[in-house]
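Translate sequence into structure tokens.
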Amino acid sequence: MYTAQHRFNEAESILTDAWETSRRKLGDDHPWTLTSMNGLANVYKEQGNYDKAESLLIETVEGRRLKLGDTHPHTLESWNSLIDLYEAWGKPQEAEEWRAKLPQIKTSDE
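Result follows.
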């Protein structure tokens, strides 16, 4: 909600606390920890703090891939957030490299 309202400092504070608490109580690779991390990365992206966002999103993508699988909606959410970050950052080559890694999801019609 704070991110949508452009209240980034408040969003960053809450998400940092949530991430640190989740890491301490649940572990680095727990889905809730990864969700907090993804949210914090998106706040950084919205603030234009692309370096911080990039490292968190890469870690989130890899963590979700290992924990949830390549085609899980949360994994794909982080993957697309990373691609969006690179596009906002003016790094189309990196965006395309990550886009090329996206899993091909088969539909029930195939």
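Note: Residues 22 and 81 are 21 Å apart (CA to CA).
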